[in-house]
């Protein structure tokens, strides 16, 4: 069975799409945050690959087409921002302030946790980019001598957590302003969170998409200071 799957050029793509469809079905049927399609797809795909002992390199090769569409999909996030440009102009100070506060919060949290749990410098710098998009996060981690695997893992956890629980968190803290919702989601959980923000509303999606880019740039600038702390 292992040889059968690995000999197919698109077995990984099929597995990914099928598991995501299962996640969508479970989410629609039970309407629980834990049945987030992305989370379900990741867990089922890992279980499938582990059960059949499939080489992870082969799996990655067979899903390259999904990676190809990642860049244009990210660029498309600029469309809702363009449509909500007037909203951005009216609230630019609050937007910039919110993104800056969120960026400082997540960098400070990583520093505090690293100091409290006596995490080494390498692991510390690997976790600093956890709340920014993968491409920038990997480059930042490599620049400061971090472990890319840890960085990618942190980014995935931040994105999936935000995508899964952002609506619950917004309700708990009674955040109702669309601009504030979008800025919070995009700053905390990059593109995965933004996909949920787009589902919530157009303004939320636009502000979240903007937050991805600005948070990434601010993290690159501020990380040069934070990496010296440990």
Which features does this protein show?
globular; mainly alpha; 230 residues
Fold blueprint:
Elements: H1 2-6, H2 11-30, H3 37-52, H4 56-61, H5 64-68, H6 70-75, H7 78-83, H8 85-90, H9 92-116, H10 121-127, H11 134-143, H12 148-172, H13 178-200, H14 202-226
Helix pairs in contact: 2-3, 9-13, 9-14, 11-12, 12-13, 13-14
Structure, described:
The protein is mostly helical and 230 residues long. Helices cover 80% and strands 0% of the residues. It has helices at residues 2-6, 11-30, 37-52, 56-61, 64-68, 70-75, 78-83, 85-90, 92-116, 121-127, 134-143, 148-172, 178-200, 202-226. α9 (92-116) crosses α13.
Give a quick rundown of the structure.
The chain contains 14 helices and no strands. The chain is mostly helical and 230 residues long.
Termini separation comes to: 48 Å
Please count the beta strands (DSSP E, at least 2 residues each).
Answer: 0
Strand content: under 5%
Structural category = mainly alpha
- The outline comes out as globular
Report helical residue fraction: over 70%
Compute the number of helices: 14
Mean pLDDT: 89
Radius of gyration: 19 Å
Largest sheet: none
**What is the chain-wise order of helices and strands?**
HHHHHHHHHHHHHH
Which residue ranges are poorly predicted, with pLDDT under 50 across at least 5 consecutive positions?
none
């Amino acid at each position: 069975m292992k040889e059968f799957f690995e000999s197919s050029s698109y077995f990984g793509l099929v597995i990914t799409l099928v598991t995501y469809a299962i996640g969508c079905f479970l989410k629609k049927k039970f309407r629980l945050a834990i049945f987030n399609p992305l989370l379900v797809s990741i867990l089922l795909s890992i279980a499938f690959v582990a059960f059949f002992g499939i080489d992870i390199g082969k799996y990655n090769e067979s899903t390259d087409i999904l990676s190809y569409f990642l860049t244009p999909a990210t660029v498309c996030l600029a469309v809702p921002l363009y449509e909500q440009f007037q909203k951005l102009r009216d609230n630019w100070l609050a937007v910039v302030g919110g993104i800056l506060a969120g960026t400082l919060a997540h960098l400070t949290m990583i520093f505090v946790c690293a100091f409290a749990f006596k995490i080494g410098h390498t692991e510390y710098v690997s976790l600093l980019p956890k709340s920014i998009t993968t491409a920038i996060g990997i480059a930042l981690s490599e620049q400061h001598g971090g472990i890319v695997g840890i960085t990618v893992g942190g980014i995935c956890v931040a994105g999936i957590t935000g995508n899964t629980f952002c609506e619950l968190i917004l309700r708990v803290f009674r955040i109702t302003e669309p601009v504030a919702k979008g800025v919070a989601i995009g700053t905390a959980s990059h593109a995965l969170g933004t996909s949920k923000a787009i589902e919530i509303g157009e303004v939320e999606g636009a502000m979240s998409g903007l937050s991805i880019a600005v948070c990434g740039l601010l993290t690159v600038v501020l990380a040069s200071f934070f990496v010296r702390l440990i």
